[in-house]
Batch of 3 targets.
Target 1
Amino acid sequence: MSFAEQVKNEIAHCKPENAACRYAELAALLCMGGSLMLGSRGHVGIEFSTSNNAVARKALKMWMESFAVRPEVRVRQGLRLRKKNYYILRVPPSFASTKTLQQLSLFPKDKEFSAIDLKNPACQRAFLRGAFMGGGSVNQPKGDYHLELLTGNESFAQKLLKIMCRFHLPAKMTDRKGDYLVYIKEGNGVSAFLQLIGADQAYMKFESVRIVKEMRNNVNRVVNCETANLQKTVDAAIRQRRDIEKLQASGLYLRLTPKLQEAAELRMSHPEASMSELATLSGLTKSGLAHRFRKISDMAKQIEE
């Protein structure tokens, strides 16, 4: 199973925070992986297909929780050896389906998605999660850092880019043979995106592999480290970065004292460094620096509560 499929399987089990976030996630998922069907009297339906069983179940669940119109569900089996099955959700054109698609800003075309709440950061995260489930991919952490969202809808791609930039992600957009690609090529950006959409396990795996890989590029500093100590350093660095990114995403980062912000910026600038190395860089004692990171961790735990 590819790393991208692992991410999709994980986020397919994320529960939207509320009905508004469910609408946002479903709208992005259908916009990315669905196609509109025109019927008589100007009525419109939609057909969504995916090869990921968990994503198909998530799409069906969100639809059933939101609307009275019931979709048809079919499975198209792969024709050749190792070909994946495709799971198809189809809502035939009708007066009711047209009204439903209007509620999701999918018809008529609305580049601002004004019918759903995209001012709420939680709904913005849900929107990005739906887009990734519908048509996202990310490289294995051992390879080159690359995450992308591919769509044939230019205004939708621009909306994704706008939201990603609101979260300070280093995203860019380009066209590819008539399609539009929103992508991230930096390790920090890929890592932040995974955490943003709720892929915590994938985030931890990505960060663990990435930090070890970067450490191996500095062999002179780690050659005498025992494996257990190296992993301990990696785990501590991941936890600290995760706490800092949680505070940044929630807006609580600005409430940190200057001393805590100094420690946070030092960790983000040196993701692979040990506590001893950070202490040397900061001029603080190792215990003093550890005390600051404990305070940062305590604030991050308040978000979870």
Target 2
Amino acid sequence: MKIHDSHLHRRRFICGMLGGGATALGVGVALPVVPYAGNLRQEPLPPFMVLEPPDYDLEPGTSRILMYGHIPVLLLKTPAPGSRLKVFVATCTHFDCTVSYKADENRIFCACHEGYYDLEGRVISGPPPRPLRPFFSRYHEDRLIIALEEENLQGAAETAAG
């Protein structure tokens, strides 16, 4: 009878260890994914966004991050004389980290995996597979209107005027 009891204890121990290992593996796989699960339930994006001069009036060679719904936006004024404003989705195309402008290097940088983009949003180096997505933009009076789709700019000027 003693041998039979130890067999059951071993079986229970082995099942417990396998179950615990499977649980640990599941948690280890799920934890890195959980932050991205929230992105599946985001509110729809507005068709366009209207910016007032304090939001977009930048000195040459500077940048600012704003939010377009749940998407970070990089506003960048290039350092060249007569520079113009560039507007990109501020999300790295490699792993959705937020990018920033490095004025000392005159490049856009993703700190997650050291990806670099030029001032046109094209990949220079690192793991990003695609260029940064640009926003379509136009000025209406003293306002800047930005949109992810060009057709959304059509009626935006009339709405911005009102």
Target 3
Amino acid sequence: MPRKKKSDGIPVEKLRWRLDPATLPFETTRDLEPLKEIVGQERGVEAFRFGMGMNKSGYNVFVT
């Protein structure tokens, strides 16, 4: 069986993607309009609404 060529590996600095801030279309987050919705938490919002809709005493909503 032919031997595979040994990999040189990946340099540590290439293991993590880094954003160049100069590519962003704003200077500071104060330049951005606030969002009116919660991003990426659809299931959490649905669960919270379900919990808040409970019309009986003795139930709690726990959010982390």
